[in-house]
Design goal:
The structure holds two protein chains of two kinds. Chain A is an alpha/beta fold. Chain A contains 15 helices and 19 strands. In chain A, α12 packs across α14. Chain B is globular and about 65 Å long. The chains are: A alpha/beta, B alpha/beta. Bound molecules: iron/sulfur cluster.
């Protein structure tokens, strides 16, 4: 027997039926829904006179458009307001649970799933959102889908799929001081490229991955899609089980015990084979800073901006030239010489309580540089509540950071939080595409620790030897 | 969904790698609750210059590419966000086929859901067609899904691969939800089985 990978085990337990060519009707345990990618799906259901098959397996939340300032005021943008209203109407009409804008449980869809215990090991989870890969941190097969497939899952609780290939990314060793999951995943994407994972599901293994907290694993899996992989996963262990226990939607009592027994079996067998394995040493990973216009354009903070003249491959050369022009950077300048205007700490990559605790511990007693505007946007209402109970909001405010309400905010700038043309931002989010945070805006992806240090110094610094 | 059998059409070139869906259609166009009318947002930031006027160098603004139905582009097209607004915007502009050496997974799927055929050709084949497209005004290709073949005006033919199930659905314009609902009994049987093995998955999420 060849043994099974974690992916094989989850896949096999979700096959409803399959054709000889491998086309599979795959059962979907859970679906998350947000306001941007669902209106057309609900409209499709209505037009066809169909009903959702299992409303009890679906959870909805508005996050992309919500304002992060005073929620008691009406939303200034009428089109945003309409989209959020449409989600509320659809959830009411179809009987789907919704955490509305003024519910303390509201937040970024990929933060609230785990927080509520909706995300469980061994499940299949989808959402009309590419960062659904986040939920793979629990040993779930979680991936983003388009709106037509959102409709498909609502109507049938299934998707038509073919089994993806498997890629093991093994990271052994111990991370340097103040380096984090964000640096690991940026270094991985720097190595495999933004299309390196296309067609694969990644399983992250190795001692450096095991050492990560659940929140660190979520940061890691979140950006699997930036490496082209629709899903990334980490096999569940005692940390996973401890995290899930007692959450509002997680199983209770005997059911929990039964579930834990099953979760213990969710790991790749010793004899199983991955299609590809990539390895990295944790010790080699410096704090990462992206310099270009996709997440694969990234280097260590102790390095310099690349020089297109030294690149022989014509495609890479042109892409580099174009990116440097957009980013307003000169070849060979040190990364620590890049001055920034804005700092954004938030998004489904890095806005959980541990991120905020770490960021606050570094900001404590310091001041944001006069030239920088910095904001902290918690991932959910509950993260915000917890942070305030611990006094983190005070630390941030005293250091000169703005403290906001939960939502996607400047990660994609669909609400009022937007970069102006030419503005340069150190961001803990996951995408540095042209215009992502506002037309003409320039985004550098970094960890929360790197973002805080940059806010205070006004430029990037190597946090490994920062006071 | 509109079926796709064969298409002979004008080709428009987008000579860039890693075109992400944020570029295909920026976020400000995602607030709609409709699938139509998205043409205006297609490549919005690339279509105009800094002062907001149309950029005459961008292909969509050039007279010779008006009415194009086939988009020819480079590696890793459609990466990033899962937004189905990207294929909706392409379709609204009139594109029924995108040819590239590689596509991002979610975008590739989304095309099939909307009657758009994404065709993968070898990188050198794409480059050679790209050269001809830019060099010849009115350059047209014929894309035949049945034969899985792209034919150039001078008769050269390039074969492409496509998953048989997807091909069939697109070729016949089938509604995939309708297809799945034909397996209602299998889904119910699965749920019954699964409830025995993993009862904790069947509690309510409210
Ligand atoms: S925080 Fe950013 S990446 Fe995450 S779901 Fe929101 S918009 Fe998408």
């Amino acid at each position: 027997m060849a043994g099974s990978t974690l992916l094989d085990k989850i896949w096999e337990s979700h096959v409803v039926r399959s054709e000889p060519d491998g086309t599979t009707l795959l059962y979907i345990d859970r679906q998350l829904v947000h306001e941007v990618t669902s209106p057309q799906a609900f409209e499709g259901l209505k037009l066809a006179g169909r009903r959702p098959r299992r409303t009890a397996a679906t959870l909805a939340v508005p996050d992309h458009n919500v304002p992060t300032t005073d929620r008691k005021l009406p939303i200034a943008d009428p089109i945003s307001a309409k989209q959020i209203q449409t989600l509320e109407d659809n959830c009411r009409d179809f009987g789907i649970t919704l955490y509305g804008m003024n519910d303390v449980r509201q937040g970024v869809v990929h933060v609230i799933g785990p927080e509520q215990g909706f995300t469980l090991p061994g499940t299949t989870i989808v959402c009309g959102d590419s960062h659904t890969s986040t939920h793979g941190a629990f040993g779930a097969l979680a991936f983003g889908i388009g709106t037509s497939e959102v409709e498909h899952v609502l109507a049938t609780q299934c998707l038509i799929q073919k089994r993806p290939k498997t890629m093991e990314i093994r990271v052994d060793g111990v991370l340097s001081d103040r380096c984090s999951a964000k640096d690991i995943i940026l270094a991985i994407i720097g190595k495999i490229g933004t299309a390196g994972g296309t067609g694969y599901v990644i399983e992250y293994t190795g001692s450096a991955i095991r050492a990560l907290s659940m929140e660190g694993r979520m940061t890691l899996c979140n950006m699997s899609i930036e490496g082209g992989a629709r899903a990334g996963m980490v096999a569940p262990d005692e940390k996973t089980i401890a995290y899930i226990k007692g959450r509002p939607l997680s199983p209770k009592g005997d059911l929990f015990e039964q579930a834990v027994n099953a979760w213990h079996k969710l790991k790749t067998d010793a004899e199983a084979r991955y299609d590809v394995t990539v390895t990295l040493r944790a010790e080699d990973i410096a704090p990462q800073v992206s310099w270009g216009t996709n997440p694969g354009m990234v280097v260590g903070v102790d390095q310099t901006v690349p020089d297109p003249k030294t690149i022989s491959d014509q495609n890479t050369k042109h892409a580099t030239e174009r990116a440097l022009e957009y980013m307003g950077l000169t070849p060979n300048m040190p990364i620590t010489g890049i001055m920034i205007d804005k700092v954004f700490i938030g998004s489904c990559t890095n806005s959980r309580i541990e991120d905020l605790r770490l960021a606050a511990s570094l900001a404590k007693g310091k001041r944001v540089a006069k030239t920088v505007h910095a904001m902290v946007v918690p991932g959910s209402g509950l993260v915000k509540q917890q942070a305030e109970a611990e006094g983190l909001d005070r630390v941030f405010r005293e250091a000169g950071f703005e403290w906001r309400e939960a939502g996607c905010s400047m990660c994609l700038a669909m609400n009022a939080d937007v970069l102006q043309p030419g503005e340069r931002c150190a961001s803990t989010s996951n995408r540095n595409f042209e215009g992502r945070q506002g037309a003409g805006g320039r985004t550098h992806l970094v960890s929360p620790a790197m973002a805080v240090a940059a806010a205070i110094e006004g430029h990037f610094v190597d946090i490994r030897n920062w006071p | 969904m509109q079926a796709f059998t064969t298409l002979t059409g004008l080709v428009a070139p987008l000579d860039r790698v890693n075109v992400d869906t944020d570029q295909i259609i920026p976020k400000q166009f995602l607030k709609t609750i409709k699938r139509t009318g998205l043409r205006e947002g297609l490549f919005f930031d690339w279509r105009r210059k800094k002062d907001g006027s149309p950029d005459p160098n961008f292909f969509l603004n050039q007279a010779r590419y008006q009415g194009a139905t086939i988009l020819l582009t480079r590696d890793n097209f459609g990466s990033g966000s899962s937004r189905e607004h990207a294929p909706w915007a392409l379709l609204d502009q009139g594109f029924r086929c995108v040819i590239a050496p590689s596509f991002a997974d979610i975008f590739y799927n989304n095309c099939f859901q909307n009657g758009i055929l994404p065709v993968v050709l070898q990188a050198d084949e794409v480059l050679s067609i790209m050269k001809d497209v830019t060099g010849t005004e009115g350059y047209r290709l014929t894309v035949d899904l049945g034969d899985q073949r792209v034919t150039t005006p001078d008769g050269a033919a390039y074969r492409f691969e496509v998953d048989p199930f997807r091909k069939d659905c697109l070729y016949r314009g089938l509604d995939s939800i309708g297809l799945t609902l034909q397996h209602e009994a299998a889904i119910t049987a699965y749920e019954r089985r699964r409830k025995q093995d993993a009862p904790w998955l069947f509690t309510d999420v409210r």
